[in-house]
Amino acid sequence: MNVLEKAHLAKELQGLIHSLDQRSLSFYEIAKSKCRLKEIFLRCDEPIFKKQILNFKSYMHPEHAADEFAQHSLYRQTFRGVFKHDLALEQALEQYPEMGWAILHRANLGFQIWYIPAPHRTALISDWDGLEQNYAWMLEQQEIYAALKTDAELNQLSVETAKNFKTSKKGSVSFASSRKDDSIIAPHTANRPFSFEPLALQQNSASSTAPIQPLESDSPSIAIHTLELSSKDDDAAPSLFSTKAATVTPLPKAATTPLNSNHLLPQVVELGQWKCRLSALEFPQAQELALCSLTVENVPEIMPLLEIIISVSQLQQYVNQPVYLAEQINAQGCFVKYIVILGAEDQLHAIRLGNIISQHYAYELVALKLLPNEQSLKQCKNAEQFFELYSEQAELVWNTETYQPFIPAKCIQKHKLIAFEETSANYTTAIILLKERQKIRVIHGQARLQLSREEMAYPYILLDRNQGVSWQLIQRIIQTLPQPISASKLHDAIQIHIGS
Predict the structure, then answer these.
(1) Bridge-based pairing state of the strands 431-436 and 457-464
(2) What is the pLDDT of residue 421?
(3) What residue spans define the domains of the chain?
(4) Are strands 248-250 and 199-201 parallel, antiparallel or unpaired?
(5) What is the mean pLDDT of residues 283-292?
(6) Of the candidates 426, 412, 418, which has an alpha carbon nearest to the alpha carbon of residue 490?
(7) DSSP state of 315
(8) How far apart are the first and last CA of the chain?
């Protein structure tokens, strides 16, 4: 096919798509146009022409076009699929938390790419756009985070792994014969499961060989329960914490426990009504300070919303001390989670600890608040109680210049109270909310909410009926403004009215 023929077909394609977009054709003409489009696709399915007809294929068969596009990318092996629903996409990414990307499609919005920036972290999400534009966005993120491996890199890794396996297999012959001799000497150990000596953390350099014990029942601080175990490769069995941060002492031989593995899982910890899973943070800066993470397991609404950070030295000593609460965002400005920092000496120490955690995952702290102690925090049973505590009782001690507070998605009624046209939104656009009769309703923010239905919290501006603001007043103000209306213009107009 020469250039002139391609030009004629491209012009014909434009005409067909324009006619379909106008929705002025009869059913017969629509079917005929789509049939002609398919004929052109088959005729022009050459590498040099594929890019030119990508938009047309996206219109006709968007999911198929997106999958085909991904299969021709540099990262085909880490691609997790094309999805129509956020939840299914998120579940697919969670199956491979180390790395991956996926495409979300909605007929009225276009495509989104979800990209994991670091192992076990929340995905970054592109704006709604075309496949090529979003793929270019993903390549920009890849330059920043380098979280994906190309197909060539993965293939090379597979080759190296296969070579290492062959080498180790040759060495296993001599080991098997020596193992046979050992079984003659000690036959009772032949079928014995692998045993591991549990480790106990010393509280100070003076010495204490006793394991950490649960605190007394009347103590309000943290109680530590038994350890559990999980299988893992023998060559990857790190201790719970770095030996630089805390000395470990083996228990007497009589206390050894038969295990199926030599890897310790996090301890179960009680913090008031919360049952938490304790895990060591295994990157160098965190290991130097013996930092660990507590994940709330028995309160479903709280679990994804926050992460608790504490030094191992504070596990038994921490009680009735100040609590620092930080808000964490990703590179797009989307909320990631609240960081609860226990045992910090002051706000500078808390900011330092929060930054150590955030910067490792390419996140950012935008605000820090202070609670006098942890007692009220431990009583929170849902997102509403936590938000009330955070917004009304915690004192703001630091924030960035562009700080916009976040509100958990479960705390708001997402149905828009007043109908009017909004301007387009991005991830930093604040939602305007009205609190009345113990409910928080959306006034302005429909466009912002549509960017993603899976965000855990949104930037917000909260108006209160107790301040003399009602939905009837807001409706009258909206009628005086030209539409579409931006969040900032509406908020300014409301503030002018309140101040007058």
Answers:
(1) parallel
(2) 92
(3) 1-60, 66-151, 198-203+210-232+239-399, 406-499
(4) antiparallel
(5) 87
(6) 418
(7) T
(8) 71
